[in-house]
Design a protein that fits this description.
The chain is 36% helix and 15% strand. By secondary structure, the protein is α/β, with parallel strands linked by helices.
C-alpha cells in the first residue's frame, strides 16, 4: 500500500504526533509511507529521521482571511497527491481533512480517505455532513466512547470502528527498582499528559487541601509538558501549595520522569479520549488515577490497576491519595497489574495491525479499484511486525533519576 498521513499541528501535536509517528514507523516496514505535516512541527522533525518514511512539509491554513495561503497549500498538496497516487490518505483533524478534500478534486486516481477522531468535540452541522458524505471513506474512533459519539453523527455512514491507541510496551518498560525503594516516605505522583486546563491537574490542588498537614507534606506532584500558564501559577500561589508541584517542562524522553513516580494521573474533564500518556505510565508499571470522563475508564480496572474517580470530585481524589500513602504494598500491586494489563491489551503491534487491516478491507471493498489479490502486501495480516523495542530501548535505571523542577 501507498499511505499518506496528514496532520495540521505546527508544534508539539500531543497525542496526534504519537499516533501518526507510531503508525508511520510500524507500517513503513512493509508499505510505502509518507507524512505531510508542517515543516516546523515535531512530527516532521521526528519522521524525517525515519529511514523508510518520506516527510513532506505541508501547511494547512485555516480561516477565510487566509484564502490565498490556502490556495497555495491546496495546489502543493494536489501536486503531491497526483505524483504519488496514494491508496490511502489518513487525516487526523478538521484543517487537514478540509484541505485534503479540496486537493483530491481533479485527481485521476482518488485515494480512499480515512479519518481518526482523537477528541470529544462535536461533529455535527453542515460541514461534517458534507465531509462525511463526500470526503470520508472510513472513520476510526480511538476508544469506544468516541465510537458511540460517531454513531450519533453523519460519520455513521462511514462504518466507524474502534482501534484503541497502542504503545510500545518494550520501549515503555518498568525501571529495575521501584521508586519507593528510594526513601519509602514521600509519595511521588505525576503525569506526562500535559498542563492544559482540561487535563484537570489543578483539581489536585483542591484534593491536597483536603489532606491532613502531615499527609500533604509527604506528597510531590510532577507534571511534564508546557510550563503552567499565568492563571495556573496564580492558582498555585494563592493556594499556598506551590512547593508541592514540580514542572520539568517538555521532555524528549518522558521515561525517566515516569520511572521516578509511584503513581500517575490523568484527570481530564473535556476534549480527552483515551490518553496515550495514561497507557505509557501503565506500561511502565505505574497505577493511574483517572476521571470517569470519555474513554479514560477504558484504560483502568478500578481497584485493580488504578482508580477511577468522578470529574472534579476532590474528595474522591483525596481518598485515593490517602490510600496510596497508607498502603504502599497495594500501590506496588496495582503497578504490577497495570504493567500486565498494558502488555496484554495496549501493545503497539495490535494497534498497528488493526489499523492496517482497516486499510486493507477498505481497499478490497467493491468501491475500490485496487485488487488486493494482485499484491501480497494487500492482504489482511495476522503476523507480528518486527519488534522496534530492543535492549537499547529498555530502560536500565537502577536508581530512577530525579526530575524535580521549579
Amino acid at each position: 500500500m501507498k499511505l499518506l498521513y496528514t496532520n495540521f499541528h505546527s508544534g508539539s501535536g500531543g497525542g496526534h504526533t504519537t499516533y501518526i509517528r507510531e503508525l508511520a514507523r510500524g507500517l513503513a516496514q512493509r508499505h510505502d509511507v509518507h507524512v505531510a505535516v508542517p515543516g516546523e512541527s515535531r512530527l516532521f522533525r521526528e519522521t524525517q529521521a525515519f529511514p523508510n518514511v518520506s516527510a513532506f512539509a505541508q501547511t494547512y491554513p485555516n480561516g477565510l482571511r487566509r484564502w490565498r495561503a490556502r490556495q497555495r497549500a491546496r495546489a502543493r498538496l494536489h501536486a503531491y497527491l497526483a505524483e504519488h497516487r496514494f491508496d490511502i490518505v489518513h487525516v487526523n483533524g478538521s484543517a487537514d481533512h478540509r484541505l485534503v478534500m479540496a486537493a483530491v478534486r481533479g485527481l485521476k486516481h482518488r485515494p480512499r480517505i480515512v479519518v481518526t477522531k482523537h477528541n470529544t468535540k462535536s461533529m455535527v452541522g453542515l460541514q461534517h455532513l458534507w465531509r462525511a458524505r463526500f470526503g470520508t471513506d472510513k472513520a476510526i474512533a480511538v476508544c469506544d466512547y468516541v465510537l458511540r459519539q460517531l454513531h450519533a453523527t453523519p460519520y455513521r455512514r462511514c462504518d466507524p470502528e474502534t482501534v484503541h491507541n497502542g504503545v510500545d510496551t518494550t520501549f515503555y518498560s518498568p525501571p529495575l527498582t521501584h521508586p519507593s525503594h528510594r526513601d519509602g516516605v514521600r509519595l511521588r505522583i505525576g503525569s506526562n499528559a500535559g498542563t492544559a486546563d482540561y487535563k484537570g491537574w489543578t483539581d489536585l490542588v483542591s484534593a491536597l487541601m483536603l489532606l491532613s498537614d502531615e499527609d500533604r507534606r509527604r506528597v510531590d506532584v510532577i507534571i511534564a509538558g508546557h510550563p503552567p500558564s499565568q492563571s495556573q501559577h496564580q492558582l498555585l500561589e494563592q493556594s499556598g501549595l506551590r512547593e508541592y508541584f514540580h514542572f520539568p517542562g517538555m521532555l524528549d524522553d518522558v521515561r525517566p520522569m515516569i520511572a521516578s513516580l509511584d503513581a500517575g494521573f490523568v484527570l481530564s474533564y473535556d476534549v480527552e479520549t483515551i490518553s496515550f500518556a495514561c497507557r505509557e505510565m501503565m506500561a511502565m508499571g505505574k497505577p493511574v488515577m483517572v476521571t470517569n470522563y470519555a474513554g479514560l475508564p477504558e484504560n483502568v480496572r478500578d481497584g485493580e490497576d488504578g482508580w477511577v474517580v468522578p470529574v472534579h470530585d476532590h474528595e474522591a481524589m483525596a481518598k485515593a491519595l490517602r490510600s496510596m500513602l497508607e498502603d504502599r504494598e497495594d500501590l506496588w500491586r496495582r503497578g504490577r497489574a497495570a504493567r500486565e494489563h498494558a502488555v496484554a491489551e495496549f501493545g503497539i503491534e495490535r494497534f498497528i495491525r488493526r489499523t492496517e487491516n482497516i486499510y486493507l478491507q477498505l481497499l478490497a471493498s467493491p468501491e475500490s479499484s485496487t485488487d488486493p489479490g494482485s499484491d501480497p502486501h494487500l492482504q489482511p495480516v495476522g503476523t507480528s511486525l518486527t519488534e522496534r523495542g530492543s535492549k537499547q530501548h529498555r530502560p536500565q535505571w537502577s536508581t530512577p533519576p530525579s526530575t524535580d523542577a521549579t
